[in-house]
Design brief:
This protein has one domain: SPOUT methyltransferase, trefoil knot domain (Alpha/beta knot, 3-Layer(aba) Sandwich), CATH 3.40.1280. Helix content is 30%, strand content 16%. The protein is built from five helices and six strands, in the order βαβαβαββαβα. α1 links the parallel β1 and β2.
Length: 160
């Protein structure tokens, strides 16, 4: 599975998301610009010691991401979608794109990809969920649909 963050703004969110990606054997794709360093102490604290095991890809901009991932099956997570995230059909190589915390995915990208837009249902009075929570909700639904791939561990508790 592939999680894509378009211009993320909050290092703690990226750290949490990176940790979720490591725990689920997912790849994390970061699209610049982002207003923090990958050495940021908040990012490292949120990602704990998992960050060193993260399968991380960085792109200069959205076009660079598209050029390096041709034919990618991309789902766009947005509060503006009609389709609920559980209605999408994910595959192992799906990409789930999330926009920046303050503005989401730009309108022109959403309009060009309307059929692949998905949302997490929530009370209408509120704008959005925290980015790392939204990623976890959608990522685990995608993995559930795929029978959790190789994440099932049977036997004695194992602590890495």
């Amino acid at each position: 599975m592939n999680i894509v963050l378009l211009e993320p703004e909050i290092p703690q969110n990226v750290g949490n998301i990176g940790r979720s990606c490591v725990a689920t054997n997912s790849k994390l794709h970061l699209i610049k610009p982002f207003c923090f360093s990958l050495d940021d102490k908040h990012l490292k604290r949120a990602g704990l010691d998992y960050w060193q095991d993260l399968d991380l890809y960085i792109y200069e901009n959205y076009e660079d991401f598209l050029n390096k991932n041709p034919n990618a099956k991309i789902f766009m997570a947005t509060t503006k979608a009609k389709k609920i995230y559980t209605e999408a059909e994910y595959s192992e190589d799906s990409f789930i794109l999330f926009g920046k915390e303050s503005k989401g995915i730009p309108e022109d990208i959403l309009k060009a990809n309307n059929d692949s837009c998905i949302r997490v249902p929530m009370h209408m009075e509120y704008r959005s969920l925290n980015l790392s929570n939204s990623v976890a909700i959608i990522l685990y639904e995608a993995l559930r649909q795929l029978d959790f791939l190789d994440l099932k561990y049977f036997g004695e508790f194992h602590n890495k």
